[in-house]
Amino acid sequence: MTKNLHNNRVPSSSISPSWPEDHGWAVDQMPLPAFLCDRHGAVLKWNALMVDLWRSTPNPDEPGRWHGWEQLLDADGNLLSENPVARAVKRAAPVSMDVIAQARGEGAIRATVFSRPVRDGSGEVVGALCAVSVSGPADSSHAKERAAFLSILSHELRNPLSPIISAAAVLRKTTSDPAVAKMVDIVDRQAKQLARFVTDLLDASRLHRAEEVPCELCETQLSAVLDAALDPLGPILKSRGQTLSENVVDRFAKLRCDPSRVAQALSNILRNASFHSPDGAEITLKVYSDGDKLMLVVDDHGAGINAELAKRAAEPFVQGAPPVGRAPSGAGLGLAIARSVCLAHGGVMTLNDGTNGCGAHVELVLPIMASST
User: Fold this and answer.
1) Which helix (H) or strand (E) segment is 279 a member of?
2) 120, 291, 315, 359: which could join 300 in a potential S-S bond, CB 3.0 to 4.6 Å?
């Protein structure tokens, strides 16, 4: 007998017999509004943050809704031709869509709906896990201003990348020094990764279009993800006399993910930890598996983070106060990007105070462990 996924009654007919109950944890732990749908569009489980946005609770006996809002429009205010949750189930792939959502008796909001298909043990899509990131009121001009900024920034970043990549290719052909060749490999790998992210940033600036999260899943090893994440971190830590303590249970564990995206998320979190930690501090990284989940845990020794900031720290352009004696750094996008990567992979990111209120504690929980068979 299938276990109910919410305190409200959920008819057994609306839940596939093979529905993976262990996906319910994501809705409960998600720091964002989140919900689960079955493959027919019946909303089965939701958290309190989601109810606050819907202003009501959905009817589990009503398949085909795919959400609990009164109305859902595209970013231009037109009726959606296809719901983002339905699209994720139909395509059996993660989907991200900018929408205008109308709750009962409330003003409309602009939000991004992230949807990831959920599969049972046989690989069949049985529903979708969804999370929602609110960007502001539907009539806000902030989204347009942000889009213009991102577009300009993307073009400016793209210009120097081609000569960097070309120079790395020439150096590789002309050097016989192993140490130089290793550095060239790092430059080439990081420049190509940055080129891809700049392209993604330019696409994201077109807010009037419904874009899917650029996420290319493939089989890879944990070591490849860690190397890509840690390559750019060495010089940053060295310049401040900081150290990174790694506790990785199995560097050669098999993953199914977008390795560049996961590396980007981890690198952003580690950079943030370095910035907020004092000179000479130790940053710790723990990596282990829990069933099909990859756990990435970062602890720093900075000033910590209060509960109010923890709720908003992963929103775009939100920054905490810089450490004493340090100027602000970056645009406040690092943690927002990391959270988006987690959502695109069907995972969650949590951020809170470290042990005894010392430093910050960040966890990435990603259901990307590949079968060892």
Assistant:
1) none
2) 359
Q: Which two tokens stand for residue 74?
A: 């595209």
Given a contact cutoff of 8 angstroms between Cβ atoms, the answer to whether 210 and 76 are in contact is no
Element (H, E) at 14: none
DSSP 8-class letter at 278: P
**How far is it, in rounded angstroms, from Cα 349 to Cα 91?**
25
Cβ distance 268 to 334 under 8 Å?
Answer: yes
- Integer Cα distance of 67 and 65 in angstroms: 5
pLDDT, tens digit only, all 373 positions of the chain: 333 344 333 333 333 444 546 667 778 777 788 999 988 998 888 888 888 888 888 777 777 788 888 888 887 777 777 888 999 999 988 888 888 888 866 668 888 899 988 887 778 888 999 999 887 776 545 555 666 666 666 666 777 777 888 888 888 888 888 888 888 888 887 887 677 667 656 545 543 333 345 678 899 999 999 999 998 888 889 888 999 999 999 999 999 999 988 998 899 899 888 988 888 999 999 999 988 899 999 998 877 676 666 666 666 555 665 555 555 555 566 787 788 888 888 888 888 876 655 778 899 999 998 876 5
Q: Give the tokens for residue 16.
A: 């596939």
Distance CA 93, CA 117 (A): 6
Instruction: Please answer whether residues 232 and 188 qualify as being in contact, where contact means their C-beta atoms are separated by less than 8 angstroms.
Output: no
Q: State the pTM of this model.
A: 0.55
